[in-house]
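Q: Here's a chain of 289 amino acids. Please give me its 3D structure as tokens.
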Amino acid sequence: MAFHARVPDFLGLGLLLDNAAPWMGLAVPALLLLAVASRSRTSLVVLLIPVFTWLVIFGPAIVPLSWSAPRTGAATLTLSSQNIKAGTGGAAQSALELAEDGSDVIALQELDAGSAQRVSTALEDVYPHHFVVGTVGVWSKYPLTNSQPLELGLGWKRALSTQVDAASGSLRLYVIHAASARPNDHVDRDEMLRQLAAVVQADPEENMMAVGDFNATSTDRAFKKISSILDEPNQDDGLLGFTWPRSPFPMMRLDHVLVRGLEVTSNTNVEAGPSDHLAVQTVVNLPGQ
């Protein structure tokens, strides 16, 4: 648990250990049973080592945000993001359900042929501003300016940046659908995350959000490149906020919201549409409020 990121990525072992790191704590109950069966006080004392290690590494991330979240300001922005799963035909359904949840900005990933247009048609009355690049798109109640596609070394574009100009303040928004990651096949994803980190670091904008399907967990060594620059808020009700797979139960958090210069008052997962990913929904105080 403590040194998983230092294990060489030989035959995909590093990737597997990185993503399994939080689940290693499940070994503690089994070790406890063995310690009790052995009737050894020394075993019980030694058992404190993995318990303490897990709490030090993952404990801060499972503390409920609601315990320390700043007070909601006079002007806020609610952003929702989801990988809608290509081929389900559910992009518009996801968008409408996220709109009903009170979203001001909706970011979608894994858009397939025709789905972006269906989303725009479904949302046009309330979300007249949108920008779509390849398989990613953003729909907003507020004007979007300085919108740009991002290649991030992939050879085709599945990321974007835009400025969300609300009446009470603006922020820079990055939306990404990182390349897939599998053992011995995650070079493209690693490069996209590396280049995203470089772009974000060079961006002088003080108020920023980066959202989407990063195809990386918070403990993935490739994700550290971007999470060392931007902050990921805890979940409202605590725990690690796993988003995939939606059924039978989430086991990994591949979908993230990262911020800089913004106060996060709420951060949670919500169900929307037929996707195999849960959506992430975050509320921030607009700058200057």
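Q: Can you summarize the key feature?
A: The chain has a mean pLDDT of 93.
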